[in-house]
Amino acid sequence: MSIRGMSFDEYVSEVKKFHGHVAPGMVCGGFMVEKALSSLPEGGLFDVVSETRACIPDAVQLLTPCTIGNGWLKIVPTGRFAMTMYDKHTGEGVRVAPNHDILNQWPQVKAWLLKLVPKREQDTEQLLGEIEKAGVSLYTCMPVTLDGSFLGGKKKNPSGIHLCAICGEGFRAEEKSKICPACSGAVTLYTPDTDGSRPELVSISTEEAVGMHALHDMTLIVPRKQKGPAMVKGQKITEGDISMLLSMGKNRVYVEEKNPAELFIHENDIAIAFGQSMAGEGTLVESGPKEGKVEFVAEHDGLFVTDEKRVKLLNTMADVILATLPQSTPVTKGQTLAGTRAVPLFLSRAEFEKCMALMQTPLFKVMPYTIKDVGVIVTGTEVYEGRIQDGFVPFVRKKLSQYGATVADVQFVPDDPKVLAAQVAQMVISGLKLIITTGGLSVDPDDVTQKGLEMAGVNIMSSRAPVLPGAMTLLGNIGETQVLGVPAGALASKVTAFDLILPRLLAEVRIGEGDVYGMGVGGLLVGP
Fold first, then answer.
1. Which residues contact 162 (CB under 8 A, 6 or more apart)?
2. C-alpha angle 275/280/285, rounded to 5°?
3. Contacts of 11 (CB under 8 A, 6+ apart)
4. What single-letter DSSP state applies at residue 292?
């Protein structure tokens, strides 16, 4: 059987020229491409998804116009030896993969495909003979429809080109950045050349240091009583200090006179620079550096928000640390938010510049609670008709008061989705930016809250949250108005998903579906 008009031997020769050697996987890939194209209409515009990086992509690029460079060939590494060829506009196509049900008929292919024997023990000649003899019959070909994200061919790259502040080269990134992934340490390509990158400090005996000046703060620790600097940077060391330093275990010390400042950036200078660059809106540096460390506090009440990606990158790219509160923590004025320091006494200038390039914009901030007026709709015929007393309004008022917000409008509605929809529409017209509905989110026939919200035009972003308690919490929006559905069970628990989501909405932080589902880690709120 031919492969795109070539005999088997001709194709194997092309494989050797393209791949560098006769790879069995690329030979199989040729038959897979042949089977796919033979199963699809002639003249179509097809893209390909390979589920492996090995061999199949080379066969596709050799036999079709689809390449990684033009975007018509995509690799989604599922670990399976399979490929899908599909119409780039409709997503309809075929998935081709080895037929595992017939592998016993081809023992060499089975041993190779399932890695049952080491490569050096494979009989390549017999293996290629089986691949040729089996031909396209070795593979299944199943109709599939690709997810919409694969349609339309190569997507326009939204990124731009930026100049790296460290290496000076242009690099592509979606967000404006001053430092490329290679210089930041996010990607490692080469073994770093550390010769001379960090000057060695010169130490002298403590007795020799009399009359000289301490290079850094030296900490005295008395268990359960004291931890603080016994000597600060720049302090002159006297005869009277020797006994104390020796009792602290300081038999040798670093002094300014032996370590010229131009060779490095001192920990206190690093702390000052970090303090000026890291702190965003609503945050303050608590005080000057102590022992090379600065801490940040909240300037006002609000929601602590940090750039987790850049914080992680900073902590990996140099000998510095930045520790912060968890993302989206509600904070009060004066509360400590974060602390940072250089772990050694100094950084080389190159390391320091890397860190500063990463901090072109602040790494964290405190967002004020800007929504002050909230609408509340209590659902349930039993409450609407007065058969039971409502407990939700005082519950919500108390929660809102923690963040400086109030209940601006309260409406009680029966279990009628049309009535609920009308009240939601009215609150939106009145200009309220947050509407909280209570109850009606379970699976009982009378629980029609979600239906009523949908009738009102609310876009339901999530009808569940991976949080216990509070799994039935609903989140959506109608235009600029956020809608939060609170299940009845919230009244029975001290903390629920409501408490995680409410402060974010009051600070007008947009919550996406991924944010909600990401709450699963740390979402178990029950327990002692």
1. 170, 171, 172, 173, 176, 177, 178, 180
2. 35
3. 3, 4, 27, 30
4. T
pLDDT digits 0-9 by tens, 167-214: 778 888 867 667 788 877 677 777 655 544 566 788 999 999 999 999
Q: Where are the alpha helices (DSSP H) in 368-416?
A: 381-384, 392-401
Chain centroid to CA 437: 31
Cα distance between residue 507 and residue 402, in whole Å: 13
Per residue in 67-79, is it b (16+ CB within 10 Å) or e — as a string?
Answer: eeeebbbbbeeee
Pinpoint the alpha helices (H) of 248-369. 267-278, 308-317, 349-358
17 — alpha (psi -120 to 50), left (phi > 0) or beta?
Answer: alpha
Is the predicted pLDDT of residue 347 greater than 80, yes or no? yes
Do you find a cis peptide bond into 223, omega within 30 degrees of 0? no
pTM comes to 0.73
Unique residue bearing structure tokens 């909240």: 298
If you count them, how many residues does the chain have? 528
pLDDT at 451 (0 to 100): 95
Secondary structure percentages of the chain, helix, strand, coil, to 5: 35, 25, 40
| Measured distance CA(205)–CA(188) in Å, rounded | 40
Angle, CA 365 vertex, CA 360 and CA 370 arms, to 5°: 130
Cα 55 to Cα 15: distance, rounded to the nearest angstrom: 10
Rg of the chain over Cα atoms, rounded to whole angstroms, equals 33
CA dist 357 and 343 (Å) reads 19
Amino acid occupying residue 187: V
The pair of three-digit structure tokens given for residue 110, joined into one six-digit string: 């089975």
| Helical axes 24-38 vs 56-63, angle rounded to 10° | 50
Percent of the chain with pLDDT over 70: 95
Alpha carbon 471 to chain centroid, angstroms: 23
Beta strands 434-438 and 373-379, pairing class: parallel
The answer to whether 346 and 266 have CB atoms below 8 angstroms apart is: yes
pLDDT digits (tens, 9 = 90+) for 389-438: 999 999 999 999 999 999 999 999 999 999 999 999 999 999 999 999 99
Instruction: Report CA torsion sign: 88, 94, 100, 105.
Output: negative
- Side chain identity, residue 42: E
pLDDT digits (tens, 9 = 90+) for 133-176: 999 999 999 999 998 888 875 555 556 888 887 777 888 886 76
Which positions ≥6 away from 63 have C-beta within 8 Å?
Answer: 3, 4, 30, 33, 34
Angstrom distance (rounded) from CA 389 to CA 211: 79
340 touches 293 (CB < 8 A): yes
CA distance 250 to 204: 10
| pLDDT bucket at 26, cuts 50 / 70 / 90 | very high
Under 8 Å between Cβ of 437 and 377: yes
